[in-house]
Amino acid sequence: MTKRKITRVFVHCTGTRPSASVEGIRRGWQALGWHAPGYHFLVDRWGVVHTLLDMEQVANGVRGHNSHSVHVAYIGGIGDDGRPADTRTQAQRVSLRSTVRILLKDNPGAVALGHRDISPDRNRNGIVDPWERIKECPCFDVKTEL
């Protein structure tokens, strides 16, 4: 099989409390009727990277952008108040950084983006401003941090 041409590495949060489990995330996708998971890799709160889907397969990460993308997420993104928040543990930060770097190295020319970065630039200033975001995922600025 020919290797898929990866042009984007999307970073996500699961949009759950940090205490969610890998199996709970999988059950959520099954309840939605998804045949493929939303991410190729999922980082739990201890920094363990779980492979959910082979990179040659297409995940359900970002509608309209999946055929040439790989998706990495951390469990969390919802704070104690029920609102979007950067809930990453230090272990998750380290594992995300390492995983994204490896994926970019293995896929020359690919760029790392947060799911929120594909929101439309409604005022056409060349920047997706916070008020333009369709969602907050992954609750931090991927372009500057990773």
**SS strand fraction:** 15-25%
**Elements, N to C (H/E):** EHEEEHEH
DSSP helix count?
3
Helix-strand category: alpha/beta
Q: For the residues shown, what is the average pLDDT? A: 90
The coarse silhouette is: globular
**Gyration radius, in Å:** 15 Å
Which regions are unreliable across 5 or more consecutive residues at pLDDT < 50?
none
Largest sheet: 5 strands, mixed
Q: Please bin the fraction of helical residues.
A: 10-25%
Distance between the termini: 30 Å
Spatial strand arrangement across the major sheet: 3-2-4-1-5
| Number of beta-strand segments | 5
Q: Can you give a write-up of this model?
A:
This protein is α/β, with parallel strands linked by helices. 22% of the residues lie in helices and 15% in strands. A five-stranded mixed β-sheet has the order 3-2-4-1-5, covered by helices on one side. The protein is globular. The model has no long low-confidence stretch (mean pLDDT 90).
